[in-house]
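Example record

One chain of 107 residues, shown exactly as stored in the release files.
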Amino acid sequence: MRNELSIRRFGFALGTTMALMYVGCVFVMATVPKEASIRFFNSLLHGVDVESIMRWEMPWTEMVVGVLETFILGWLFGAAFAVFYNLGSAAPTAGETKPPAEPPHAS
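Predicted structure tokens for this chain:
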């Protein structure tokens, strides 16, 4: 039996997840003190110092555009993943045989 991923649904799932993560980052930066935010994001990025690239004043319109862009990129990555997964699952694996063809039905 062949398992296929729905390209549209997988794209929406990844896009929504990434957009929610973006909103979560915005929430952390808006509610946590600056030093704690820097420590948090540095630990997520394995000690990379993000202090010089972090912006603390962001217009809400830019945040909305960022959420939309992140959703679109997530959708595209999810759709591409589903396409490649489906292409890989279409090829028979070692030891797998095709099911026998059904005989034609008499009319």
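Notes: The chain has a mean pLDDT of 87.
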